[in-house]
Amino acid sequence: MTHRNELPVPTVVHLHGGRTPPDSDGYPTDLVLPEGRPPSAPQGPHGMHDPRAVVTRLTRDYTFPMEQRAALLWYHDHRMDFTAPAIWRGLAGLHIVRDEAEDSLGLPAGPRELPLMIADRAFGADGGLRYPSLDPSLRERPGVHDAYLAGVLGDVILVNGAPWPVHEVDAARYRLRLLNASNARHYELEAVTDDGRRLDLVQVGADQGLLAAPVAHRTLPIAPAERYDVVVDFAGVPVGGRVRVRNRLGSGRTRDVLAFRVARAAADHSRVPRVLSADAPAWRRSDAVRVRDLSFRAGRMRGGHGWLIGGLPFDPARTDVTVGLGDVEVWRLIADVHHPVHLHLAGFRVLSRGGGPPLPHDAGLKDTVSLRPGESAEIVTRFDGYRGRYLFHCHNAEHEDMGMMANLEIH
Ligand code: C2O
Ligand code: CU
Ligand code: CU
Question: Is the distance from CB of 204 to CB of 272 less than 8 angstroms?
Answer without folding.
Answer: yes
